[in-house]
Specification:
By secondary structure, this protein is mainly beta. The protein has three helices and 29 strands. The longest helix is centred in the N-terminal third of the chain and has 26 residues.
Length: about 425
């Protein structure tokens, strides 16, 4: 740990930043936050049941892009605002996924993903953007004749700007040419293009022996495999039992990171040579998640345990320095989502709509996107794409932050 009085430093931060980071009415707002999270958990459960796989367990960093990120010009210093409403689509926008600053996919559905689970007359449309969300083109899904295709929740598994899988009704509908054509595959036999949607940049993923890495992850021990079925040179030196929290991350420098959490202890192993050899990092108690910047230069551990609404539980942070985890000043107590960006920073959000950066010592506000999330009842969450684009998402908006470090241009997409 750094030789610093952490309690004093955090007290100084809270005294100076609390007036801007936490608005009035905290107890009531926190009550509403908990209620919103319960509602979101219901829908999340249905999606998890559909996939029965590692959605969210993999972080894919450093996939190659084929175009320069867009540079929209915000009017009067405000974020650019575009609406995702392409011609010809039906229903509501239910999912919006970007793979880099330019390329994204949108899913529209005439049925509600919870209330209409038994219906088989739902219409699904997909749309695609190649210019950062300024324009969208409808992509027609095929008519397979299988009525089950139109029932149950639908979900997107994008790989890049030309390859996406639409998971719906027991089928995988896959395009690898930007939507010009689709091929249907049964749920038990996902093709490589679908498995790449949950794999790392070079095709690593976790799977049960003989499994596909998607439909069944309930075996006693998972193992590291490759989408192309090539053998993994050396298995990682850590057990992967069923029920453990695990993350598989491949950063832009080619390093492979595997984190496993059991009994409140997080173990991280790293390979620099494509799983030929592994190095075990020190085990950290109480840490819950591994965060790695897209370029691989910075790695962090965080503990995002929810507090008791009295501010008693700090969001602890450790940074990897000289192969050791060193504890830094805790995140602001109201942080609800965090992700690593390039430049030694963490991007953080809180339920009140604030977006900012954490340096390990202090919070730096990003005022441009604040209050640009509409009146959503969902807390904003943050993720960072392989090209270092920040994505802040609520139930009604998606906001992209392109650029480097704290110098960002923000684009707000309304749902």
């Amino acid at each position: 740990m750094r030789e610093t009085d952490l309690d004093q430093m955090f007290a100084e931060f809270e005294a100076s930043a609390a007036p801007t980071f936490r608005p009035p009415g905290v107890p009531e707002a926190r009550r509403r936050t908990r209620a919103r999270r319960r509602r979101r958990g219901l829908l999340a459960g249905f999606v998890a049941l559909l996939l029965a796989g590692p959605a969210g367990a993999y972080a894919i960093a450093g996939r190659d892009g084929d175009e320069t990120p867009p540079t929209p010009r915000p009017p009067d210093g405000q974020p650019v605002e575009w609406r995702v409403h392409p011609t010809g689509v039906a229903g509501q926008l239910t999912e919006l996924r970007f793979v880099d600053a330019r390329h994204g996919w949108a899913l529209f559905d005439t049925c509600h993903q919870v209330d209409d689970l038994g219906r088989d007359d739902c219409r699904r449309d997909v749309a695609r953007t190649v210019d950062g969300g300024e324009t969208w083109q409808r992509v027609a899904l095929p008519e397979t004749g299988n009525r089950q295709q139109f029932s149950g929740p639908a979900h997107l598994l994008p790989v890049d700007g030309t390859t996406v899988t639409v998971v719906v009704g027991g089928d995988y509908l896959v395009t690898t040419d930007g939507g010009a054509s689709f091929t249907a595959y049964p749920f038990g036999a996902p093709p490589p293009a679908t498995r790449r949607g949950v794999a790392t940049r070079s095709g690593f993923l976790l799977s049960c022996p003989g499994g596909d890495g998607l439909s069944d992850l309930s075996c006693a021990q998972l193992r590291l495999v490759r989408v192309d079925a090539a053998p993994v040179p050396t298995p990682p030196p850590v057990a992967l039992p069923w029920g453990s929290d695990r993350q598989l991350i491949e950063s832009g420098d080619g390093r492979l990171w595997l984190a496993v959490r059991q009994n409140d202890r997080l173990t991280v192993v790293v390979s620099v040579d494509g799983a030929t050899s592994w190095r075990r990092l020190p085990v950290v108690s109480d840490a819950a998640r591994l965060l790695v910047s897209p370029d691989g230069r910075d790695a962090w551990l965080v503990d995002m345990t929810e507090d008791n609404y009295d501010g008693s539980t700090a969001k602890r942070v450790w940074q990897l320095i000289d192969e050791q985890w060193q504890e830094r000043v805790a995140l602001p107590p109201d942080t609800n989502s965090v992700a690593a960006v390039n430049g030694g920073l963490l991007a953080v959000t809180n339920p009140w709509g604030n977006v900012g950066y954490w340096t390990g010592d202090r919070y730096i506000d990003a005022p441009e996107p604040r209050d640009r999330f509409g009146n959503s009842e969902d807390d904003p969450t943050v993720e960072v794409l392989p090209d270092d684009t920040i994505v802040v998402t609520t139930g009604t908006t998606t906001t992209l932050g392109t650029g480097t470090a704290q110098t960002r241009t923000w684009t707000r997409l309304t749902h």
